[in-house]
Prior knowledge:
0% strand; globular; 82% helix; mainly alpha
Amino acid sequence: xxxxxxxxxxxxxxxxxxxxxxxxxxxxxxxxxxxxxxxxxxxxxxxxxxxxxxxxxxxxxxxxxxxxxxxxxxxxxxxxxxxxxxxxxxxxxxxxxxxxxxxxxxxxxxxxxxxxxxxxxxxxxxxxxxxxxxxxxxxxxxxxxxxxxxxxxxxxxxxxxxxxxxxxxxxxxxxxxxx
Length: 179
C-alpha cells in the first residue's frame, strides 16, 4: 500500500470515528442519562413553541401529538413543568373519542401519579380504560391497566392490583390472537 493511499484511508477512518462523536449520533445511540436530559432541555422549548403554534391555529391533532412527544421526551429526564396543562388543553379541545384522546388521557394519568395525587391518577386511568375498551384500543387499555396497577399498589389495595396485573396481559394476548 502506498503511503499516500494509507494516509487517505486513515483520514477517512478518522473522520468516520469523529462523526460518531457528534451530538446527533450520540443522541441516536443513547437512550438515557445526562445526555438524554441535556438533549431534552434543548429540544423541549422548540417543541413547546410548536405546540403553542398548533393550539393557536386550531391544529388539535398536531398539538396532541406534540404534547405526547414532549411527554415521551421528558419521561426519563423530567421536569414536567407545563406538560400537565398542555395535555389538559388538548383533551378539552379534541372532538371525538379517538386513539389520540385515549393516549392523552393515559399520559395525564401517568403524570398525575406523581404530580396531582393518586385519586386524580386513578380517575384519569379509569377514564382511559373505559374509552380504550369501548373503542378497541388494546394497547392503551393495557398500558392504562398497568399504570392503574401501580396506583392500586401504592394505595395498599393488593387484591385489586393483582386483578389488574393479571387482566392486562390477557387483554393484550386476546387482541393479538384475534388478528
